[in-house]
Amino acid sequence: MTILLTNDDGVDAPGLAILARFLAGLDDLVVAAPAENQSGVGMAITITRGLMAERRPDGPGGVPRHSIDGTPADAVKYALGHLFREKPPRLVVSGINYGPNLGRNVRCSGTVGAAFEALTSGLPALAVSVEYAVPPNWDGAGHYARRLAEKALKLAESRPDRPFLLNLNVPSRPPGEIAGLVAARHGTGGFLETLVRKPDGEGFVTGGEWLVSRDGDAAVFDAGFAVVTPLRFEMTDEALLDDLRWRWREDLVRPGTDAGAKKGNG
């Protein structure tokens, strides 16, 4: 049985090597990750050119490594379609990302995007990120990644037909200095990106500020806790859907009914 490791910081990123070290012995590990840093690409896939995959020298502990010159989602697609064609991995773990992925940042995170690619392929996934610090302390993130990976494997066994995605964010501290692990909802905090003009006046770069949130994952993280949030790909606003069905009831039809057939043929 195997665990697939990936990330968005690139196949040679230190966070990926640390993740492999902390997950060693939990199961057989295989790495498939982007050749270069792909931060901020979300679930993007490459469609305008061909992709190249390269077998890299083994990583820490002899973990097989594969480099793909595309996005994190490309790397997961390659692994599932070519490395795991016969039998899928038990779990996909993405990280450890250098910088948190909380609140509003989840939407563009390549780390979470790789995990979403696994989820939409029917596999359980865990995304792991550490607080941005110079230099970062990886030990707490590695410690909680191991704990959550163990729990995720057991959770997957208990619900084999219901894949899930757990988004874990950990302060940049040793395990003993972290206040504990909290399960929290996805909130509205995180990093608010803006385009800032470059000092030379030629073009723009991404800048911004950290939004302090009073609730949700970012608020728990800001209080010094490691925080895990279950995420889902299905994004329907159920309350608004029900409201629209009532407000627009004169204009909407139900598929499969006589009215729907007449409307569709009109």
Structure described in brief:
The protein has helices at 14-23, 72-83, 110-120, 139-158, 216-222, 238-247, 258-265, and strands spanning 2-6, 28-34, 53-56, 65-68, 91-98, 125-130, 165-170, 181-183, 190-197, 204-211, 226-231. It is an alpha/beta fold and 266 residues long. It has 2 domains: 2-187 and 213-235, Survival protein SurE-like phosphatase/nucleotidase (Stationary-phase Survival Protein Sure Homolog, Chain: A); 237-266, no CATH class.
General description of the model:
- The protein has two domains: 2-187 and 213-235, Stationary-phase Survival Protein Sure Homolog, Chain: A (3-Layer(aba) Sandwich); 237-266, no CATH class.
- Helix content is 29%, strand content 24%.
- It is built from seven helices and eleven strands.
- The strands form two sheets. The chain has a nine-stranded mixed sheet, with helices on both faces. Strands 9-10 form a two-stranded antiparallel sheet.
